[in-house]
Amino acid sequence: MRSHTYYESMGAARIMAQIIDGKALAKEIKDELKTKIQSYINLGNRAPSLRCIIVGEDPASHTYVRNKIQAAIDVGIDATTLKYDATLSEDELIAAINSLNTDNNVDGILVQLPLPGKMDERKVCNTVAPEKDVDGFHITNVGQLCLDMPTFVPATALAVVEILKRYKIDTFGRNAVVVGRSKNVGMPIAMMLHSDGKHDSKLGMDATVTVCHRYTPAEQLEFFCRNADIIITATGVPKLIKATMIKPGATIIDVGITRITDEQGKTKLVGDVDYEEVSKIAGAITPVPGGVGPMTVAMLMHNTLQAAQRLARKN
Amino acid sequence: MRSHTYYESMGAARIMAQIIDGKALAKEIKDELKTKIQSYINLGNRAPSLRCIIVGEDPASHTYVRNKIQAAIDVGIDATTLKYDATLSEDELIAAINSLNTDNNVDGILVQLPLPGKMDERKVCNTVAPEKDVDGFHITNVGQLCLDMPTFVPATALAVVEILKRYKIDTFGRNAVVVGRSKNVGMPIAMMLHSDGKHDSKLGMDATVTVCHRYTPAEQLEFFCRNADIIITATGVPKLIKATMIKPGATIIDVGITRITDEQGKTKLVGDVDYEEVSKIAGAITPVPGGVGPMTVAMLMHNTLQAAQRLARKN
């Protein structure tokens, strides 16, 4: 595949960026997982299993969960949804999770966020047994990630890493900017990007990393972005990243996803990047939709197979 | 105290940086702790207690432990050292830690690193009960730190934060560079510097943070440092940070400490910063020795009082 160093050799010529096809890449990964899962079952194991808990009626959350379940079934994972009314108490939710924690037929547990009402999401995330926490939200898994130990990496962060790897984007000693410091996305991405590639997790990418966020002054955001070989943005602010902020040939990974209404009154999904203009300058770019999103679901399936394999080895 | 914004108002005039007196600041903090501990005891509590485990005969480690014990005794902490031969097995060490974990007369446990031989330091650090882990090395405490939750912060990282606070160095929306990505120093400092000040830990400083390390090209290190309002360096590479790399008025916190032999054949301790030259450009600077070092010991005492208070509330 074409890398951004290739682009640089083209000088100032305006060529369109390589479009990172997250949908195709996700299909590739799911096909690989399907084969691996079939082999795993052929060795005498039961199919990896995933349980998704959803509380309340948020339509977007239900769509996300349906997509995850469908992807799981496609690759051969035994996946079901546990649906609860928004009236469910926190104690009842915790009891439901504990029951899945001790169920030897369950490998992966996922609690769809956000939770309704005044539930303590941190407490709920910490209730999921760390070895079944395929979302990587348990405090122990966060600690392991930050110490470069093997763990479950939150699927969106892992999707970004996997895109960089599969598209052979060089990160070693390169400048990366992460825009957004959320604990599920920006933080783990920045952690893996700057970490030592020789450490146990093998996810370290040895880049020089700048974390920008809502309090980074606009001119400083531009300063850091213009010097970046890789920009990863996860803010939910449409058109935050403009063509004038991009170093020619840079790789742009857009994790943002916002529903907007266009001039014709139609709603559509957009990312954080002014895609039309930035794609004329960048070396490679993810579209929204069809970039990081489908990859996130694929990486959740990857985590579920990991959970099954680790639990099988333990038992 | 004079801030670097004051310096900027001086224009290009060359004035010497404010020297951050870590020794005096540490004394100030220890005096405050002494008063707090006396009040705590006056309320009917026993004195906070700290147990330092040291294995083997490394002279530097013994010096560090002696300094910690002395500081603890000075502030009214009941502190003792448990010394073991280098022949101690990992299982015996773990048994010793477990015995302290369950001892209601022990609030803080510290295992001096490095451990000799082939001991698994990660396993040992994870054996210390998280609520007694005054070094903040347990995976749960690392996870909490990275999620901006109240926790024990590694003392050196906390020392840096405390210096910035006490010297009223503005961090909000400022550019900070952290040089070095170690898990006990650079990583937690970068985490607190970039995090949201509104989160539970109240340690977030809302700076834009760039993490540089051994694979950051020299010219890029210079690029980021020259744009930084705050530089925190923790590499152990003498004179890595030179005057040409400093923005006039910047704050320089030097965590590095290296023993070198000078031209006269005398050994002395130096930091990462070319102190003599950089102090002509910087707004504020920590010397080595006498900067971060004494503050680290003071913050360990702070953590020990915290441990005692939290455990007292629980019992």
UniProtKB/TrEMBL annotation, chains A, B:
Q: Which GO terms describe its molecular function?
A: methenyltetrahydrofolate cyclohydrolase activity; methylenetetrahydrofolate dehydrogenase (NAD+) activity; methylenetetrahydrofolate dehydrogenase (NADP+) activity
Q: Which GO terms describe its cellular component?
A: mitochondrion
Recorded source organism is: Papilio machaon
Which HAMAP family does the annotation name? Answer: THF_DHG_CYH (MF_01576)
Query: What Gene3D superfamilies has UniProt attached to this entry?
Result: Leucine Dehydrogenase, chain A, domain 1, NAD(P)-binding Rossmann-like Domain
Q: EC number(s) in its UniProt entry? A: 3.5.4.9
Does Glycosyltransferase appear among the keywords?
Answer: no
Residue span(s) of domain Tetrahydrofolate dehydrogenase/cyclohydrolase catalytic: 20-135
User: Transmembrane stretches, by residue range?
Assistant: none
Subunit structure, as described in the record: Homodimer.
Q: Which residues form the Tetrahydrofolate dehydrogenase/cyclohydrolase NAD(P)-binding domain?
A: 154-310
Provide the alphabetized UniProt keywords.
Answer: Hydrolase, Multifunctional enzyme, One-carbon metabolism, Oxidoreductase
Q: Which residues form the signal peptide?
A: none
DNA-binding keyword on record: no
What's the protein here called? methenyltetrahydrofolate cyclohydrolase
Q: Which CDD domains match?
A: NAD_bind_m-THF_DH_Cyclohyd
- At the top of the EC hierarchy, this enzyme's class is hydrolase
Its BP terms in the Gene Ontology are:
tetrahydrofolate interconversion
| Reactions listed under catalytic activity | (6R)-5,10-methenyltetrahydrofolate + H2O = (6R)-10-formyltetrahydrofolate + H(+)
